């Protein structure tokens, strides 16, 4: 798709029903993001989600997907400088879920892990720029790559990941100019979130896109629906019908 200049559409999903809808609508890629930690479990960060939980969500998404490529996030601590352990965790993810590929957060510091995983035949997408799993190291979700040194390291990490054999790179919350420069420099596709229009594709979190979480409204987000209002009103309508005995009616009874 990158070679044909066709932009790649990516959304997250964590369950069978949502995956079926996105897949049926023609999405290119479904990402089972570790944002499930926030959106599905209600944790304050992505650090709290476990490999077992990610496997559960990933399998549910695979069950609902016929056509889209499914990528699963490797959660915090599973790919972090111990190549044997990283490979074991990645094999579990592939074997127990049927996903097509995994995504890992990090650059040069997980070079050996990524090499080992790719050598074992597991397709890897790298995640660079803002890396939410490192929140306790940086203490902020602020934009990354604004300073020259950080931008330089980011470019080097992208080139390294390409050299190691990663099939794509997710770039989160970096200046649009830098994301465009990286996307032009490497042959593998870049997928951006808060990285401008110059990346080879875009990803957003499904609850954010569908307007299910009005408390979260970063600059990079565009809502395509207002499900929070629709679901609230539908729920209120249902409650009222139950209370007034308007539901169920005769046709809805045996
Ligand atoms: O976990 C996630 O949802 C992500 C986002 C950056 C899309 O990685």
Features:
2 domains, 254 residues, 15% strand, globular, TIM Barrel, binds 3-methyl-2-oxobutanoic acid
Count of beta strands? 8
Strand content: 5-15%
Instruction: Supply the helix-strand structural class.
Output: alpha/beta
Query: How many distinct folded domains?
Result: 2
Distance between the termini: 53 Å
What do these coordinates show?
- This protein has 254 residues and is an alpha/beta fold.
- The chain contains ten helices and eight strands.
- An eight-stranded parallel beta barrel has the order 1-2-3-4-5-6-7-8, surrounded by six helices.
- The mean pLDDT is 98.
- The structure holds 3-methyl-2-oxobutanoic acid.
- 3-methyl-2-oxobutanoic acid binds next to loops.
Describe the secondary-structure layout:
Blueprint: E1 8-12, H1 16-25, E2 29-32, H2 36-39, H3 51-63, E3 69-73, H4 83-97, E4 101-105, H5 111-119, E5 124-129, H6 135-138, H7 148-164, E6 168-172, H8 176-185, E7 190-193, E8 201-204, H9 206-209, H10 227-243
The site of 3-methyl-2-oxobutanoic acid has 11 residues, from loops.
